[in-house]
Amino acid sequence: KTTKADPTDPECNLFNLYLDEYDTKWTSQINQLDYLVISSGHWFYRPVIFYENETISGCQYCALPNTTQLPLYYGYTKALRTSLRAILENFKGLAFLRSFSPQHFEGGPWDKGGDCVRTRPYRRNETIPEGADLKIHDIQVEEFRAAEEEMKKKQGLRLRLMDTTQAMLLRPDGHPGRYGHMQTAA
């Protein structure tokens, strides 16, 4: 479950993320679905205040005084676990967890001069997932395996991992040209 930290401020990019609560906007409709795809990861690279048991447990990229700075992986792991639990408890169809699509910047991150101007895909031996992208992928696989074990106890639900990380790493069109940069970037 997520909300804007200040919904009255259109410029506010800080979000509240309730790591142990379902978002009823989608869980209330889940029983009407035959198929469900979870595709996540990049959203977690933004400033977020984490809540657990209705109390602030920390944040990432928020610089709030007297608030523990927690790594991206902390919130991502717990949010994915909660989402998978919502599916296990409320869904009877076919659910897919699509793995993380790696970033495509060479020469630095997107906001520090990195770019992606490739015109052909990488070859398999030219690149490997690494750093934060690899860690997000590993969390997804680990949480999927745990949910898969729980799923075996449940009738009707089918859960599949659509592991596209390696294939998406090879593609040449990650963030081409000016569209991979902030509007104010030169």
TrEMBL record:
GO terms for molecular function: O-acetyltransferase activity. One of its GO terms (cellular component) is Golgi apparatus. Pfam families: PC-Esterase. It comes from the Eukaryota. Residues 6-184 form the Trichome birefringence-like C-terminal domain. PANTHER family: PROTEIN TRICHOME BIREFRINGENCE-LIKE 21 (PTHR32285:SF351), PROTEIN TRICHOME BIREFRINGENCE-LIKE 9-RELATED (PTHR32285). Belongs to the PC-esterase family. TBL subfamily. This is Trichome birefringence-like protein 21. It comes from Raphanus sativus var. raphanistroides. The lineage of its organism: Eukaryota, Viridiplantae, Streptophyta, Embryophyta, Tracheophyta.
